[in-house]
Structures are given as C-alpha cells and as structure tokens.
Fold this protein.
Amino acid sequence: MTTPTIELKPSSNPLSDAEREASMVNPGFGRRFTDHMVTIRWTEGRGWHDAQLVPYAPLSIDPANMTLHYGQEIFEGLKAYRQPDGSVATFRPEANAKRFQASARRLAMPELPVETFIAACDALVKQDEAWVPAHGGEESLYLRPFMIATEVGLGVRPANEYLFLVIASPAGAYFPGGVKPVSIWLSENRVRAVPGGMGDAKTGGNYAASLLAQAEAAEKGCDQVAYLDAVEHKWVEELGGMNLYFVYGNKIVTPALTGSLLAGVTRDSLLKVARDLGYESEEGRVSIDQWRDDSASGGLTEVFACGTAAVITPVGTVKSEGGEWVQGDGTPGEVTMKLRERLLDIQRGVAEDTHGWMHPL
Ligand code: COI
C-alpha cells in the first residue's frame, strides 16, 4: 500500500498572528483548533485516496451515516513539542500509528499504513507550526487523528467507506488544577470494559461507556473515575481516560494489559523512563483492597495517573461507597514528580532521547 500524496489546499482566511496568539493563552485542553486539518478517504476496492490538507471546517454528514448509528469510530492522541532550537518534534508517533491500526482491526475498519499516519500528522504540524506553543512551558500542540465510517445506510455491518482526519489543538494542562493531585471516585458497580470486548481499542464507545460513572464521580466531588475488572470487581484497571501507576518505594507498578484496558503510550514510556532513573518498574495486578490497605500502611507511597493529555498527574483522595482515604500526605510524591520531569524533559528536547522516541519534523 503506497502513501497517497497529501495535496495542500491552504486556508484563505487563517487567524491573524494576534488572534492566534490570543487564543493560545491558557489554552486548557481541546477548546481551540488550528487553521487546517488532514483528510484521507478509504473506499472498498480502491484503498486510501484523496489525501488533502484543507482549511479546518465542519463536516457535512448524511443523517444515515453509519458512524452516527453504530459507533464505528477510532481515534488517537499525540503531542508536538517546541524544541530548544525552535524546531518541532512529535513524541512516539509510530506507537500511536500502530495502536491506531490495532483499534482499526478491532472495529473492523481499514488499517492506515504507519507511514501515512505519520505523514498526515507531520503535514498538519508543518502547515500550522505557528500554533505549536513556545519551548520551555508545559504547553504543546495536541494532535487528534481519528477515523469514521462515511457509508450511508442502516444495515449493521462494517462500512465500505471511511474518512481519516487529523485535527490539532494547542493544549495546556488537562486538569484545571495542573499538577495538583486529583481525586478519584471508585466505581464498584459500573465497568468500563469486559474481557473479549473492546476495552483495549481507542474508540469513542469506551469513552461513552465511562461518562455516567464520570458524572457520578463529579457528583461526589471527584475529578476522575477508577474502574475495576468486570469479572471479580476486584482488580484495578484504569481511569475513565488514563492509565494508573502505583508507587511502592523504589518500584512502580501498573495494571497489566488484560485486554480490557488501553495500552497507553505514556504508560509504556514510563516503564522505561523509570528504569532509566534507577527505579524498578513492572506490570502487575493491584486489587482495590491492596490499594486501600497499602496506602494506610504506608507501603504504597504514591499513586499517579498518566496519559498523553494528562501527562502525569498525582492522585490524592480516593472515595468509594465504603469510605475515603488520602494517598500519602495528599501532595505530589517525589517519584511521581521525578518521572514527570524526565518525561517532559525528553519531550521538550532538554533530556537525551536515549530511546529514539522524538520524531523531528
Ligand atoms: C489522551 O490522553 O490523548 C486521550 O485521548 C484521553 C482523553 C481523556 C483526552
């Protein structure tokens, strides 16, 4: 499969420099979008075609579009960072491209070649480079590649036409409090995904499935919801939109990939960054009783959430029907912050990229 050439149709009315700069102040997460987007079509029998870099604009969708009815949709999230010399690099786009292919297989969608995924992200970042925030801070340009079915019809089956897009958004902290520890609501009855389901695919359906429990978390005054496994309701899996790490002194442990949780790129990177910093790191199983008891005994020293959007965010209070507890003294832990600093330093180009993760444009 050859990568289609991306044809450029630049925006005739982009924001002025002043308007763009104003919209990049305190960008928050996912509220503003750059001037362009990439679109590539796939048709049964023809493959990928019509790759274009076009002005950012609404899509016109038939009311009987199959994605609107049966949710055949997948997406990714990755970031572009301004480097010390002013150039721009993305973090591990190949890992996202491969996960996008795995999600496509699970949702019976066509696989986009890895090189096409990367070329599409590169083309958008190059075109809208002025939207990449300045070097040194925590801000970056968040890229959202995604794919929807475009076939029109109400029969339930894999569609025969798809549209792949990449949009971009300047991003600051995902949580309004920045690195302030987040509070977690433990969802003991509602599950996010089941064995054999699609919990390991990055598809909108998993996020839709998390929204009711996330709303319940908000009612309890919590920032995020944590899910347990669907069979025993015992093993901690992940949060609504990010993975979890448990810190036992010098060792960090993250729930193993059982098939019902997402293989986060940040999660995978931290297994390696932790070893670089002299910590032990492993995938394992942590039960909810262990979380509560080890936190009380002090054996569990820190807990943090991680994801592309969330970066690394410490966990403070945990609430459940049975009561609540505070992790450590409720402030960000030392290991959490060291991992966070090293990961961000690699991404910002100030720590050596020994794993070859940065993709310069
Ligand atoms: C990401 O971290 O990129 C995600 O897609 C998670 C979502 C909560 C924004």
Summary: The mean pLDDT is 95. The chain has eight helices and 18 strands.
